[in-house]
Amino acid sequence: MTVLLGLPGLRSSRPGADQQRRLADAYGRVAADLRLSLTDRCNLRCTYCMPAEGLDWMDRSELLDDDEIVRLVRIGTERLGITTVRLTGGEPLLRRGLEGLVARLAALEPSPVLALTTNGIGLAGRAEALRAAGLNRINVSLDTLNPDTFAELTRRRRHADVLAGIRAARAAGLDPVKINAVLMRGVNDHEAPDMLRWALDEGVQLRFIEQMPLDAQHGWRRADMVTAAETLARLRTAFSLVVDPAHAAARGSAPAELFRVVGTDRTVGVIASVTQPFCGSCDRVRLTADGQIRTCLFAREESDLRLLLRGGADDATIADAWVTAVAGKQPGHGIDDPSFLQPDRPMSAIGG
Ligand code: SAM
Ligand code: SF4
After folding, report:
1. 195 is in an annotated binding site
2. I want to staple 325 with a disulfide (CB 3.0 to 4.6 A). Which of 272, 282, 303, 352 is the partner?
3. Which residues line ligand 2 (CB under 6 A)?
């Protein structure tokens, strides 16, 4: 709907205050953090994510193009209270023209905080341009300090590229640089203290994520998962960690529980998605690379915004569909329910 501004004859498609809505659900949560997948493709093959041969990638025509993405994010920020947009995938650095897309998203008004989750390959040559384009935050995934273990875990010999990417992100002034690590029993779980020592030296913030049942191969077994409690116990063999009351009070909807590393001014995080779910304070909503709204990583239903976009729907209609989708968000991921079923889409096609 167009809105009349104060001047006669001057019209704007920007919504008025009466059209500002929030993405609220039936459990009192409000989604303000959009996880936006830019591609399902990847140049690594992490064993906890996808099989060695890769997956049947989406056809290019199925992916939202840059204009469609910018329009949806504009609707989200202008009308629906989206304040943060995290670009992810698959591997978002594989998206052609990413810097240009970041610049277009950064130019929106209101402008969202822009974050990127990446495996870091190719980041060394692009961190500065991404920062200049308007990227505010970055998370780089790194599960090991050992190049051979990296090759075993990701099935590619690219460890040095990731380290170079992390350093480039720091040099470009992205701060904090957060490192996401998934521990696998008998593969890299013994490295937790060494990784924390490395993170303290590098000046990056390390967070350990519990492995979730989101792999394309459906090979996840709860008994094999390294729990956050185990990770903390390992870290405490080498470090003294305390819950920082200030961090705890400020945690809000953040998935990571932060611990202060005694003797330093730094923290380490654990994301206990499985053993201590934080669904009750979740403020996230996901948009897949092919334009489907998902209210949870584990959702079994999706809402098709691409169909509306390509069918000529106006902004208000798309906003309505988005509001309706989030209103139906489930209270929790239900991994512990006997009836739990892993979603058909793997993590790489949802956007982690
Ligand atoms: N390719 C990019 C990367 O690896 O950072 C972005 C996408 S990836 C799906 C996002 C995050 O999800 C990564 O930190 C990765 O380690 C994590 N991830 C992937 N599969 C996972 C699983 N089954 N359980 C927990 N985390 C997982
Ligand atoms: Fe690629 Fe990220 Fe999945 Fe690893 S976790 S295979 S880097 S999408």
Report:
1. no
2. 303
3. 42, 44-46, 49-50, 89-91, 119, 141, 348
Residue nearest to atom 4 of ligand 1 (CA): 119
Q: Can you give the residue ranges of every domain in the chain?
A: 2-350
Closest Cα partner for 66 from 76, 74, 78, 57? 74
Q: From the alpha carbon of 210, which atom of ligand 1 is closest?
A: 25
Ligand 2 atom at minimum distance from 49 CA: 3
Q: With left for phi above 0 and alpha for psi between -120 and 50, is residue 21 left, alpha or beta?
A: beta
119, 141, 348, best to mutate for ligand 1 pocket (most atoms within 8 Å of CB)? 141
- Whole-angstrom distance, CA of residue 285 vs CA of residue 148: 36
- Is 83 among the annotated ligand-binding positions? no
Convert the pLDDT of each residue in 173-216 to its tens digit: 999 999 999 999 999 999 999 999 999 999 999 999 999 999 99
Model confidence pTM above 0.70: yes
**Mutation to probe ligand 1, out of 91, 209, 227 (largest number of atoms < 8 A from CB):** 209
139 CA closest ligand 1 atom index: 5
The Cα 114–Cα 132 span in angstroms is: 12
Cα–ligand 2 centroid distance for 56 (angstroms): 15
Give me the phi and psi of 143, to 5 degrees please.
-105, -10
Give alpha helix (H) positions in the chain.
66-79, 98-106, 127-133, 147-154, 159-171, 192-202, 228-235, 245-249, 305-310, 315-327, 347-350
CATH H-level, domain 2-350: superfamily: Aldolase class I (3.20.20.70)
- Phi, psi (deg, nearest 5) at residue 206: -90, 140
pLDDT digits (tens, 9 = 90+) for 274-314: 999 889 999 999 999 999 999 999 998 999 999 999 999 99
